[in-house]
Structures are given as C-alpha cells and as structure tokens.
Amino acid sequence: MYGRIHSLLAKNKIFTADEFADTLKHKYIYIMKSVIKLFIFALIGSLSLSAIAQEKVLETYNVPLSNPNQSGKLFVDLQNGTIQVKGYNGKEVEVQFIERGEDNRKNKDWNWDWNGNEDKDHKSSKKGLKKISNNYIDLEITEDNNNVFVKGSHNRRSDLLIKVPQNFALKLKAHHNGDIYVENVIGELEITSHHGEIIMEKVGGSVIADTHHGEIRASLVSVVSDVPMAFSTYHGDVDITLPASVKCDTKIKTAKGDIYTDFDLDLKTITENKTTASGRKKIKIGGWMYGKIGAGGEEFLFNTHHGDVVIRKL
After folding, report:
1. Could you read off the pLDDT of 42-62 as tens digits, one per residue?
2. Considering the chain, what percentage of its residues have pLDDT values greater than 90?
3. CA 20 to 30 Å from 289, out of 47, 58, 154, 192?
4. Number of domains into which the chain is organized
C-alpha cells in the first residue's frame, strides 16, 4: 500500500520518499500526543471526583425557624473557608460542617528553631508517633425570628454546606479560601467574597455579588423587575445568564477584556463635561458603557478589570 501511495505522490511530484516517511512520523507523533492529552484529562477528572468523594460531614446542626411557614434570611460570616448554600423543600435551616479531602492547612512537622535554623532533634522526636485527626469545630449559630446567623472562627478554616428553604434571603460573606456556591434559592441575595469565586445556579430574585480574586458566574431563572442588581470583580470573568424576557438598563465596564452577549444590546459611552471649583473645564470620555435590554428598566451593573463580561440569554 505504501508503495502505491509513494508512487502516486512521486508521480505528481508532491513528496519524495523521505518527505513522505517524515510526514507519517509527524502524524504518528500528533496522534500519540492527542491520546496522551485525553488520558491526562480523564485522570484529572477522576482525581477531582475522588477529591469530592473524600469530603465528609463532621457535624450537622438543625436550626428550627420561629415561623416555619414564612420566609427568612441567612447571614453567614466566614474569615476562612467556603460556603455552599442549597435550597430545598424543608422548613428549617441545616448547617453541615464539612471536612475537605485536601487539607489546606500546613500540617508539616515543626523543624525550625527560633533562630531560623533546622532543629533536627525536634523533628525526629515525632517519628513513630501516630497522628490523630483534629476535627476542631468553632462555629456560632443563632436564630431570631427567622433570621439565622452563622459565624466562623478566626482561628481555623470552616467549610460549610447549608440547606435553606427555597424561598430565603441570603447575606453571605467570606474572605480567605472564600469560594461561595449558591443553588436553587429564590430571594434577595447579597454575596461578598475577597479571595474566591462566586457561583450561582438556578437562583432568582435579586443579586448583589462582589469579589476581588475570582470569577462570578450566575444563572438566574427569574428576576425582580423593580430592583437593581450588580456583579463586580477585579480578577476574573463576569458571566451572567438572565431570563430572555428581562428588561433592564445595563452599565458595563471591563478594562482588559471583551463583552459578549446574545441579547439585542447596543452599547454606547457617555461624555461628561464638568467645570471644577477653580473654573477649569473637565471632559471625561468613556469608561462605562450603557445600554438597554428589552424596553429597559432598573440598572444591572457588570464590572471587571482583568476579565470578560458575558451576558447570556436563558
């Protein structure tokens, strides 16, 4: 077969025999690289699932509501740790303290003295000893007239999974390792992180989401028409899915990214002319871009510095 191919190619003066052999070699290398990449992706996926499987619930706290037939509000304040909130059909708040499969704390042996020199004697003193898991929990949970307050300790990481009735307001705040995930909750949602991403799926109502180091992704199944919303980060994309029937004014800014949408959205900049106290004229051009979705309405703000703004139609 190779002889027929080679003679045909040689007849048409496309390849020499050496060139043809070299082409086959490169093709083989390309195929092998593709197989290796697929293997690596599969391995990463299996490791991710393994890490999820390693999570376990250390403690569960059920918090009855004062008025279980009415909506309420959850307040969470964590200095170190992730927050996951899921809406469900129950009538109480369930707080679960999660142990991660991968410990983010430094559990290395103490092997340095106060002068910064290696202390070999101290390090060797731990050999042969069994390490006992330290499942230390330091949380404060209170309930007052359907307002549930959860506060984590400054001393230790707290990773929480909290279940709330589906119609519930949220005010969540995280700082270090502060990824926040919200799913299947309808209400007034105020989400703030500093070092972490904010991910929201199947949420509704109104949203104020703000972080510094992380992307913001939200999929809203419904919105409140007379309430403004805002999605703001510094490092990361802002990727928001809105109902196709939404009507709002948009205010968008990305300093080092692009804007994408499948809505009929025409954006324009505004030139501002001002006169300072000293009588000088000041002209400011651009920065924010303004537009309307549908007939317009309350202002929806989308802001990032290092990232893209993506506004999708549900």
Report:
1. 454 444 444 444 568 888 999
2. 56
3. 192
4. 2
d(CA 138, CA 156): 8
Mean pLDDT of 184-193: 97
Same domain, 89 and 142: yes
- 0.85 exceeded by pTM: no
The Cα 190–Cα 253 span in angstroms is 21
> For residue 193, which of 236, 162, 156, 227 has the smallest C-alpha distance?
236
Average pLDDT, the chain: 80
What is the per-residue DSSP string for 74-102? EEEEEEES-EEEEEES-SEEEEEEEEPSS
Residue numbers of the domain that contains 16:
2-50
* Distances from the Cα of 211 to the Cα of 103, 172, 227, 235, angstroms: 24, 12, 21, 9
Give the whole-angstrom CA distance, residue 243 versus residue 255: 27
Instruction: Decide: 135 and 58 in contact? Cβ < 8 Å.
Output: yes
Domain membership flag for residue 126 = no
